[in-house]
Amino acid sequence: MLQKSVVLFCGSVLSTVFFSLAAVFASPYAEAAPVQVLVTDQQGKPLADAVVELYNPQSAAKTSGVAEVAQQDLTFRPFVSAVQVGSKVDFPNQDKTRHHVYSFSPAKSFELKLYAGKPEEPLVFDKAGVVALGCNIHDYMQAYIYVGESAYLAVSGEDGIARFNEVPDAAYQLKLWHPWQDAEVAAKQVQVPFAALSLQLAVTRQQKPSRPKKGFGNNY
Ligand SMILES: [Cu+2]
Questions:
Q1: Consecutive H or E run containing 160
Q2: What is the pLDDT of residues 63-92, one digit of tens each?
Q3: Distance, CA 119 to ligand 1 centroid (Å)?
Q4: For 216, which DSSP code?
Q5: What is the number of domains present in the chain?
Q6: Strand 142-148 to 80-84 pairing
Q7: 141 C-alpha to center of ligand 1: Å?
Q8: How far is the CA of 106 from the centre of ligand 1 (A)?
């Protein structure tokens, strides 16, 4: 009888220890939830291709991933991507033609001669900043890679919404960037979770770069 109560006692102590350990390992965040941010232009119209970064010191400690900027139909896809510092980016050429991808941006200066079906090693983006991509063979080809410090980065879709799968509850600096923005935007302090967040950004809209129509003097 005595033995049994000792065992029970030990069991409850053990489970208390495990629960406390779980709480320690889960720290500093208790909860994480999906987060959505709506980005609109100065007329209130949804703005696609806007990068939203949620930064705090913990967010920078996460591991980085792999991203892809393909060349397809003589166009970079996607037009805007966002990756964390230290991420690898692949540049697969899905066209039959050759591309010569380059960037002169201080965050990453490089050039890649890409042939169809011949994969190159992915490049590591190890400096925060915006990397503007071009192609030496097709002048109109343009794309951007936003290299952020945080693991929490999202690019808005055609509906203007930047979607994050899971962001731990905490205070963040929200950074907003768009290739067509009229001016740099100051970072803004936000607290996650939030019910709804809508941001307005003044841009000068342009045509998204894509393969020129036939009959305009091109012979690709
Ligand atoms: Cu090209």
A1: none
A2: 667 899 999 999 999 999 999 999 999 999
A3: 15
A4: S
A5: 2
A6: parallel
A7: 6
A8: 21
Which tens digits make up the pLDDT trace of 40-69? 999 999 999 999 999 999 888 766 678 999
Say how many Å lie between the CA of residue 182 and the centre of ligand 1: 28
Residue 189 lies in a domain: yes
CA of 86 relative to ligand 1 center, distance in Å: 26
Residue whose tokens read 């991507």? 81
Q: How many A from CA of 78 to the centre of ligand 1?
A: 14
The secondary structure of 156-214 as a DSSP string is --TTSEEEEEEEESEEEEEEEE-TTBSS----EEEEES-S-EEEE--B---PPP-PPPT
Residue 111 lies in a domain: yes
Rounded to the nearest whole angstrom, what is the distance from the C-alpha of residue 68 to the centroid of ligand 1?
A: 16
Q: 56 and 134 share a domain? A: yes
Q: Quickly count helices (H) and strands (E) in the chain.
A: 1, 17
The pTM of the whole model exceeds 0.85: no
Both 4 and 66 in a single domain?
no
Q: Domain range spanning residue 15?
A: 1-29
- One domain, residues 9 and 113: no
DSSP H helical segments within the chain, as ranges? 2-26
Q: Are residues 22 and 119 in the same domain?
A: no
Is residue 128 situated within a structural domain?
A: yes
Distance 130 CA to ligand 1 centre (A): 20
Gap from CA of 93 to ligand 1 centroid (Å)? 9
Alpha-carbon dihedral 206, 210, 215, 219, rounded to 10 degrees: 130
